[in-house]
Amino acid sequence: MPDLQDLFDRSARAAGATLYWTARTARLMVGVPDYETYVAHRRANHPQEPIMTYAEFFRERQQARYAVGKGRFRGCC
Length: 77
What we know:
- The structure is a single chain.
- It is built from 3 helices and no strands.
- It has helices spanning 4-29, 35-45, 54-66.
- It is elongated and about 60 Å long.
């Protein structure tokens, strides 16, 4: 019979993984790419270039998706 603490630990890990993937999927569905993926890509492929902060990254992604910075609201479609 499994140890109760082990069962609890496995359940907590599964719940954490579910929460992580649910949040990541929700962000991608509304057009906000994953910041951690961006940082990992920049470090691996462009180590000499600066990495945007989360606020800069979010703002840039919103402007790219909705074209707000071009003086018009394009929308997502």
